[in-house]
Amino acid sequence: MKLSARLEALVAMVGAPYPHIWDCCCDHGYLGYQLLETYPDSVIHFVDVVPSLVAQVDQLLTGTTLPPDRWQTHCVDLKTLILPDKRQRYLMIIAGVGGDLMVEMVTQLLRNNKHQSLDFLLCPIRQLYKLRTELNQLGLGLVDEAIVKDGRHFYELIYVSTGSERKISSVGDMWDLTNPVHREYLALNIEHYERMGAQVVNPAHPALQAYRKMLRC
């Protein structure tokens, strides 16, 4: 199964061995299926709130030779999920949703699973600055991060953990401005916040200031 550059990067960033990896908002299950092949010692959980999608993934996996104890499907609102074993370390992968919704999901997962060791691998499609700021406020720490270009679109991968004390930068510390992809993405972010600033009384948005500052580093 050929994955997009974004999904390939998510699979590659899973660094530590996890007993359980949760592919949240799993859609058609492509990411989770690749995780099954790449991490044979992990149980992969496919989670989505849409019953038809979960049924489709369940049918797909049932038709394979994969052992049934290697995967589980769950039709559930992620914000209500209570993880089954507090002794386990879990990786929660959330991709393809906006930063605002992602913050809600992470906040509720932390609230519903207190004192649980949780890692999050996040790939939002909007509101990166706000998401990063609020992840810090939730007490999470950075594990890894990256910029990925997939076709005409850019994505940030943000890997955070309840067990890390490394501060999460509001604009990221993964930039390499000798890389033309990174420079193109930075220019797009600056243009975005300049357009936003033209619509308000005070254009000095902290995100715009932070992105512009990187050009002077």
UniProtKB/TrEMBL annotation:
PANTHER family: TRNA (ADENINE(22)-N(1))-METHYLTRANSFERASE
Name of the featured protein: tRNA (Adenine(22)-N(1))-methyltransferase TrmK
SUPFAM superfamilies per UniProt: S-adenosyl-L-methionine-dependent methyltransferases
Gene3D superfamilies in UniProt: Vaccinia Virus protein VP39
Species this chain originates from: Neptuniibacter pectenicola
A Pfam cross-reference name: Methyltransf_18
